[in-house]
Amino acid sequence: MTVLKVRVAEVVRETAEAHTLVLEPAEEDRDRFAYRPGQFLTVRVPAGDGHVARCYSLCSSPVCDDRLKVTVKRVAGGLGSNWICDNVAEGDVLEVLRPSGTFTPASLDEDLLLLAAGSGITPVMSILKSCLAAGRGSVTLVYANRDERSVIFAGELRALAERHGERLTVVHWLESLQGLPTAAALRALARPYRGREAFVCGPEAFMDLATSVLTGLGVPAGRVHVEKFFSLSGDPFAEPEPDDAADDEAPATVEVEIDGETRTVTWPRSQRLLDVLLRAGVDAPYSCREGSCAACACVLLEGDAEMDANTVLDRRDLDDGLILACQARPLSDRLRVSYDG
């Protein structure tokens, strides 16, 4: 298992409640921090006598930012966000996992509709900056906040709109002036862009409203992407416990395509794929290890497997062959999976 460390090079106070951490990995680990726009980092957070993990989206762009950045907004009673905002300072070192996540556009050249609320702007900002810097499409952002003082990245968004006026439209929705967003209001704002790929991130109520509006406008489900984070109950940084259960059947064999290389690994019937890969020294991506985030998703190219739990892959994902490595056990004697596309 690969636990990585990053140094906090700077802490930027975006608003009274949101801090951006500028992160520097060790030189020898830089390749492991390659990421796609919209992905997140899993951060180890102290909790009592142990640790928990929390996922925070990268707001930086892999195509135009030299350093990694995550933005954390304080949540009332939130263990991770309050610890970070109250304690993390320049020079501190954090333990993290490799960037991961599926909330990322397939192409930077498509026209996009981005719907964000509050700290949901974080992965959306990464996508927005990447498309403007390296793509050819137009981007429309609808961004809801409580009031003007709570708008994260206000200055940066203003500068981007001035620099990319023909390609970027930013619409702010302020609860202090306009009340909470309504279905009718979001429908009117989204209707001109209903032919675009849509990305939605924010509080659950906002995401439910936005996805309902987009569905009502006829946007196909496959073109609406939603980023959801869960408070993880376990510690994914801990070494996987050995599975001592005796298998009645001979183990399966799995061929794994990852980072342009192919490995063949023995896969005992009682064990989950991710644990098997980590024990074999395969640097497979993951975050929650609970079947809740899709960071470990891979494509099953050959053979059959079953999953113990799945709260994130929908019918379309399953039909496309996606499985969660942290939950998958083999049904076939020989399987082949790929993380490379």
Task: Provide a quick synopsis of the model.
This protein is α/β, with parallel strands linked by helices and 341 residues long. The protein contains eight helices and 18 strands. The protein folds into three domains: 4-96, Beta Barrel (Elongation Factor Tu (Ef-tu), domain 3); 112-227, 3-Layer(aba) Sandwich (Rossmann fold); 252-338, Ubiquitin-like (UB roll) (Roll).
Descriptive labels:
five-stranded parallel beta sheet, 341 residues, 31% strand, alpha/beta, 8 helices, Rossmann fold, five-stranded mixed beta sheet, Elongation Factor Tu (Ef-tu), domain 3, Ubiquitin-like (UB roll)
Output the helix-strand order.
EEEEEHEEHEHEHHEHEEEHEEHEEE
CATH topology of the largest domain: Rossmann fold
Number of helices: 8
Overall average residue pLDDT: 92
- Give the structural class: alpha/beta
Oligomeric form:
single chain
> In what order do the strands lie side by side in the largest sheet?
9-8-7-10-11
Low-confidence runs of at least 5 consecutive residues: none
Helix content: 10-25%
Number of domains: 3
- How is the biggest beta sheet arranged? 5 strands, parallel
Query: Cα distance, first to last residue?
Result: 22 Å
CATH class of the largest domain: Alpha Beta
- How many strands in all? 18
